[in-house]
Structures are given as C-alpha cells and as structure tokens.
Write a structure and sequence with these properties.
Elements lengths: L1 H57 L5 H10 L15 H23 L5 H34 L2 H30 L7 H10 L5 E2 L4 E8 L2 E8 L9 H11 L2 E11 L9 E5 L8 H13 L3 E8 L1 H5 L4 H19 L6 E6 L10 H5 L2 H25 L3
Parallel strand pairs: 3-7, 4-6, 4-7
Antiparallel strand pairs: 1-2, 2-3, 5-6
Helix pairs in contact: 1-4, 1-5, 3-4, 4-5, 6-10, 7-8
Amino acid sequence: MFMFDGGIGQIIYLIFFFIFIFFYSRIMVMQVMFKLERSAEMLEGLSRKGKNIVLKKIKKRPDKKIRDSVNQFLEFFMITPVSLDPYGIVRKFEHLIDLEKDRFKYFVNQLNPKANEEEKANIMMGLSGAMSLHQIAKIVRHYVELIKNTKSYNLALIVQMQIPLIERMAKGLLKGTEALANGWVVGDGLGPLVATQIIDNSKTQKVDDETLVCRKKYKNRDIIIIKAKGPGGRTGNIGRVLDKIGKKEKIAKIITIDAAAKLEGEKTGSIAEGIGVACGGIGVERAYIENFAVKNKIPLDTIIVKMSQEEAIMPMREEILNAVDKVIPLIDNAIKRTKQKGKIIIIGVGNTSGIGNTKKEADKARPQIIKISKKLKAIEEKEKKKRYKLFPF
C-alpha cells in the first residue's frame, strides 16, 4: 500500500516537474505581462488626461475637428541631424528647434486665433507636455505587444524593472502639463524667478519674441539680466541673446542660475555653487554661452537649486520657492569676486510659466505656489499611507 502510494507520488512529482520545465517561462511571462498590461493602460490613461487638459485650454467644448487635429499633432516629431561630422551640429539643431517652434505657433494660431500671446505660449507648453506623455504611453505599449508576440521573459523583466521610474516620470509629466497649460509656476521656473528678484522693478527690454534683458546698477556694478519673457510658458533664446550682447560690450563674468536634478536622499531646495553653464535642454543655448566664454576667456559661475526631474516639470514646491531668497546672497558674492572691468551678465535659466518680468509681477504668483504646493503634499501623504498599508516595511 505504502509502495503504491509512493509510486503514485513519484509519478505525480515527475509530471509536475516536466510541466514546470516546459511551462515555467510561459507562466512567468504571463505573470509579468499582467502587471505590464496594467501599467500600459495606466500610462495611456495619463496620456488621455494630458490631452484633455490641453483641449480644454484651447476650447471649453472642443469639437471633433479640434480633437482630430490635436490627436494628429501629438504624433509630430523632430529627426535629429546627422552627427558623423560634428562641425556645425549646433547650427543644425538651432535650425530644427526654430522650425519646431514655428510649427507649434502655427498650429496653436490655427486652433485658437483669439487667444492672447501669453495664452498661446501656455498652450504650446501644454501641448509639449501632452506630446511627451503620448510618446511614453506609445513606447510602453510597443514593448508590451512585442513581449506578447515573442513570449520573451528576459525582455519582460527588463521592461518591468524600468516601469516604476517610467510611471513616476509620467505622473510628474501629467501634473506638469496641467501646470504649463494653466500658466502655473513650475519647478524649472527657479532661474527666471531669481532673475525677477534682481530686476526688481527696473525696466526690461524685449530682445526677441521669447527673451528680454534688463540693464541696471547693482552692488556698484553694471549688470545685464537675461531671462525668458513671461508670464507665458517660454524658455527663451538666452544663449543667442548673450552672444549678440557680447559682440558689442565688454563682459567680465557670466552667472547662470538654474534648477538641477538632485540625487535621491538630497533635499529638495538645497543649493550648490560651481563653475560652468547650468542650462538644460538640447544644448544649443548652452553651446552659445560656452563658445562665447571660451573665446573671450570669461569666468563662468553657476548656482543651482536641486530638485528631482519630476519636481522640475511639476508645479513649484514651497521648498524651491524658499530657496529663491537664499540664492541672492550667493549672486552678490559672485559679483564681489569679480575683479575684472566690464559688465556682469546674470542669466535666469528655465521656464518662465506664471512668472512676470519684474519682482512685483512675479511676487503675485507666490500665494498660488504655496497653495498648490500644500495640495500636492496632502495628495502625496495620502498615497504614502496607502502604500504603507500594503507594504508596511
């Protein structure tokens, strides 16, 4: 009896052993695919929400024609120039970026010709955010379908490992799309916000459609402040404007102020000083500043305020706002260290969404920043409590 039971047990064990060998990888793929499918659907939902935010800014009740136009425009792309011969690559990028901006302006003008200049700038920024969300959702869906077709467990694991970071970035992008479309101040507005504090209520001069300058006496030195034109969402042509100014005037130092990505564990709003050019983006404006500085042997001082990548595109946090006043003394010290004769250029790098062109105009946004920041913190605390209940470790 015992031998018979033992024989049946061995047979059952062997059956399960061979099933495990032949079907283990498929079972694991199915398990991972279930999670990836849910993530893909969630990202597609975020993409739809981002698109709807922009549609409502264009028109409260968008018709089918507007919806179809926006859907088609979300597929817009830019092919990067050939870089086999790196000489002239900056000019190629500059040309393509200008063409891209013109195309965005034309599209927004067609959809909402009655909107003012600042509203159109906000819609353009909102479209850019919605487009990024759309691309993320498409790419994740591509890999999900590819894994379904190939049944590749290794590929499924690679994608699964990246999903938490992708979801985190997508959630930040959705909040950023809402902020930019509505003309709220985002984390990346740190540079322009600092610039307005130094501009105070002095006169500003518009240099081109996106950039303005302010010339004034500050700390017994002649300074030139460069920032993107607000309060619409713009980043400005700060490098090209600097290059034009530098050809006509003697420059003693260039100081750039910008938001910078922090490491996990570092505090949001912490400040660091260094040398070089703090300027994100594709690199065109930064290249102009660096080339000008190297050619004329001009010192480059930089001050950064640290934040995560998501915080840079999301509505500005109170910790970042509080850092603005702490940056000013560091700029004053950088000016004091400048012994050479000539003018000092201060560049507020970043997106000027919701930020006016003087201190008085910019300070109007402070109550809104604090209000939205508190709302975001309350939402995050609720999410943390939910996660703690599921994983209390």
